[in-house]
Task: structure prediction
Amino acid sequence: MRNHKSRLAVFCSGDGSNFKSIHRTIEDKQLNAEIVLCLSNREQCGAMEFARNNGITTVHLTEKQFTSFDEFADAMLRCLREHGIEMILLAGYMRKVPDAVVAAFRDKIINIHPALLPKFGGEGMYGIHVHTAVLAAGETQSGATVHLVNEEYDQGGILMQRHVPVLSDDTPETLAARVLACEHTLYPDSLEKLLAEQQS
Ligand code: GAR
Result:
């Protein structure tokens, strides 16, 4: 393993529990990486608060701050380059990453999705909507997927998946909680594997 720690940006929109689990894994020296930046479309959210409390640079960036989407994408790219970011982790980021950023960071953007892709992915499939759809479809298994990000929603190559059972009395909320607990080990495990491959 090289000594160089991969410089990560984490993109979040909400509680940031996946961000926290990755941060904890790094603190425990199980990942050869450092979280340099937390970028969010919401200035006030659990993830940004956690970053501020842990000395991680926060960047609040939304399309609304710019007159065009291209300007927004340019600002995001500039920010990532200024901070020497090598890999981007989407952790509950509820926005589409601009194509220009995907192209500049090809195969270096990772997402976690709360279902077994390719099922229950695509536009509008995020957060609680995913679990509602899984229950409506009568599935007996759900789970989480870590995958590469390309220009299409939830369609990049799958890196790792883990199953969780769907119980007969599940509500979207109880299923979401079981899947989220699974995500908290799946995301760090996927990163460990990916970084080991890249750094060997
Ligand atoms: C997680 O369940 C994550 O998989 C999901 O949002 C939640 C964020 O929780 N992401 C998506 O639905 C993306 N399509 P967190 O903020 O506590 O990590």
Q: What stands out?
A: The two ends are 5 Å apart (CA to CA).
